[in-house]
Amino acid sequence: MLQTVPEAVGIPGRLKDQANQLLADAAQCRPAARLGLMTTLYFKHGHTEQIRRRIEECFTHFYDTFRSALDWQSYQRLRKLSPSSFSICRRQVLESSPDEPLLWSISSARPVEAATHCMSVMAPSQSQAATDHSCLKMLLPWSFLMERDGARVYEGWIKYLCNQTQAEHGYGGLVCVLPGDGLRYLPLEYELARNYIGLMVDAGPHMESLRLLDRIKGVSWYSVLGNRFVHQLGGSDRLRSVLSTHSDVVFHTYENGLMIRAGVLPALGGKSEAPSSAYVAVNKVLKPIRVQDTGCLHPCPGRGIGFTEQSTAQWYARFDEKPMASVRAGQPCPQTGHWFSSAMARSRRFFNKGEVMPAFEHLKAERTQWFWTDFSG
Questions:
Q1: Does 120 score more than 50 pLDDT?
Q2: Long-range Cβ pairs for the range 213-216 (8 Å, 24+)
Q3: Which of residues 316 and 162 earns the better pLDDT score?
Q4: Which residues of 101-120 are buried (b: 16+ CB within 10 A; e: fewer)?
Q5: What InterPro entries does its record include (predicted)?
């Protein structure tokens, strides 16, 4: 199902407004951050010849598509990117030993700068492959989505990368892009993430990989679920059924699972804005497989400015629905749905919003409490 034409037409404008406000906030700090469109995928068998060949194909496709924007390459050492240096690194990757980890990136910027375009991979050696995921990242400028057919082209990219890596899980959405040469810029990401809940915190996906062996990070614009996670949630048909009332939630399959898109374009959110209803709906479905041992998103928050373990847990729960407060008899129902009262057995029934909650003959109205029950999903 698709959103109505007026709704769809207004979405790019809202995203532009949100992005411009975020960049204005970021510009108050030095260096200014970039707003980027990040794809992060976790996968297995990154030490094998087959998967490393697929990784090389991903890099070649990215290089051929965005060659004019790419200037730097890192494989064993940082070097200027040129057709010859890229060819040399491709060959070295294909000839690399499974006993050696793979660390490779091509980028528009040096580590001391915030990139606009980047593809990077981290794959552990064969001896560590059983206890750690490999991770592939692709960064594009957020404005890529404003180009003609930009959202459709990006969808093709994320599906291609999922197929190439046989992704276990991952996400695609908006991130704060910072220089990659140290931890001193993390307070900026922290401040922006507090104000824009649609922003994915992606400062250290490699560091997070150990926590994400059997859990996912959570909802983003695109949420990638491998088949084992789809099965844990009851299967593809159940997921589609539960989210069928949300016209802006779209499913796509790839060779190893499902991609769930929440909205026509990603939602940054913003100060005083309500969370995206599509993100909230998808988050609710994904919550059972979301990481529970959240740790700390930032390894070394400086001077208390950055994610702590407490604020990290709050960030992961940012799209969780708040518990509905109980309602006393005689008060209007605040939410259409099913409610029950502990004062009477088998009292669960459906109420419309605004309907007066009833009392029971054997109890005074002020002692009768009704409680929300949400059995959907």
A1: yes
A2: 213/131, 213/132, 213/133, 215/289, 215/290, 215/291, 215/292, 216/169, 216/286, 216/289, 216/290, 216/291
A3: 162
A4: bbebbbbbbeeebbbbbbbb
A5: TsiV (IPR021815)
User: Residue 293 class from Cβ within 10 Å (0-12 exposed, 13-18 middle, 19+ buried)?
Assistant: exposed
Please give the angle made by the CA atoms of 228, 234 and 236, to the nearest 5 degrees.
Answer: 75
* Contact of 242 with 223, CB cutoff 8 Å: no
Beta strand pairing call for 134-141 and 257-262? unpaired
User: pLDDT tens, 253-312?
Assistant: 999 999 999 999 999 887 778 899 999 999 999 999 998 888 888 876 555 578 888 888
With beta carbons less than 8 A apart as the criterion, state whether 352 and 333 touch: yes
- What would the DSSP string read from start to end of 258-272? EEEEESSS-----TT
Q: What would the pLDDT profile of 40-73 be if each residue is shown by its tens digit?
A: 999 999 999 999 999 999 999 999 999 999 999 9
In the numeric block, the tokens 């740790």 are attached to 295
The Cα 345–Cα 362 span in angstroms is: 13
Residues 280, 166 contacting (CB under 8 angstroms): no
> Which residue type sits at 14?
R
